[in-house]
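A.,

Following up on our hallway conversation. Structure tokens first:
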């Protein structure tokens, strides 16, 4: 009797072991939703810079070899757009994607893990990357224009398009509404070649009430510079005036090809 019980127990244990061995590795996940994470290597970039997206897919054994597909929103209110980029899930369940966003908006990303025989389709959480791009300052709304013109201007023999410049020797100024979207400004500052020989003038820039730049130039002088603002301003104010007007001499300030780094 004791031998019979032992033989029966052994046979039962063997059957159970064989039955478990016959189950697929991810049987516990069969019919469940695939899980996939997503992380961005940077949360702020300038348009054209690389952003590395990484994550994990679970269950790793079932997801290995599958290709996750990237989706993107690059403007508020638009639907998700499926991009061409895909990445293969490794045996450890990891994947890596690289994107280079080109428009100055907050870009949203997510990845789709396709369904398999062991799990349903999975969707990652959304990550957002704020993208800044260089824009012409003259494309922004301007107000309170006093003796300023837009267009091409010559500074020290070089033509600069999309510029702002004074057309009169008296004090000139203009304000641009940049709506707290812009963090930097760049351009070439100096005197327009329409100034007289011996002319001199001051050009300055203020971000709201904070002075950001001021310099006095003689005719033929210029400076190319980038200004960074500690706080994104509501308004940028450009000012210029001739500092010597005796005897018909004058200097006309110019802001050549002035651009701002903004997101929307």
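Then the amino acids I'd put at each of the 264 positions:
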């Amino acid at each position: 009797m004791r031998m019979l019980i032992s033989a029966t127990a052994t046979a039962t244990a063997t059957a159970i072991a064989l039955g478990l061995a016959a189950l697929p590795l991810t049987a516990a996940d069969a019919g469940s939703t695939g899980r996939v994470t997503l992380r961005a290597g940077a949360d702020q970039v300038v348009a054209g810079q690389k952003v590395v997206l990484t994550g994990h897919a679970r269950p790793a054994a079932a997801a290995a070899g599958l290709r996750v597909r990237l989706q993107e929103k690059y403007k508020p209110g638009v639907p998700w757009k499926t991009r061409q980029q895909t990445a293969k899930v490794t045996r450890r369940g990891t994947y890596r994607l690289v994107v280079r966003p080109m428009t100055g908006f907050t870009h949203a990303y997510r990845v789709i893990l396709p369904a398999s025989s062991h799990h349903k389709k999975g969707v990652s959480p959304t990550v957002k990357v704020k993208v800044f791009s260089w824009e012409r300052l003259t494309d922004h709304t301007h107000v309170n224009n006093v003796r300023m013109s837009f267009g091409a201007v010559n500074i020290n023999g070089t033509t600069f398009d999309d510029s702002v410049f004074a057309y009169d020797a008296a004090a000139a100024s203009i304000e641009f509404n940049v709506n707290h979207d812009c963090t930097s400004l760049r351009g070439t500052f100096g005197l327009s070649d329409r100034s007289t020989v011996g002319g001199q003038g001051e050009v300055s820039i203020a971000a709201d009430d904070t002075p950001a730049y001021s310099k006095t130039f003689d005719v033929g002088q210029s400076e190319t510079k980038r200004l960074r603002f500690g706080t994104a301003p509501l308004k940028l104010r450009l000012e210029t005036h001739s500092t010597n007007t005796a005897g018909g001499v004058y200097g006309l300030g110019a802001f050549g090809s002035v651009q701002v780094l903004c997101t929307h």
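The first helix runs from residue 2 to 22. Curious whether your intuition agrees with the design.

B.
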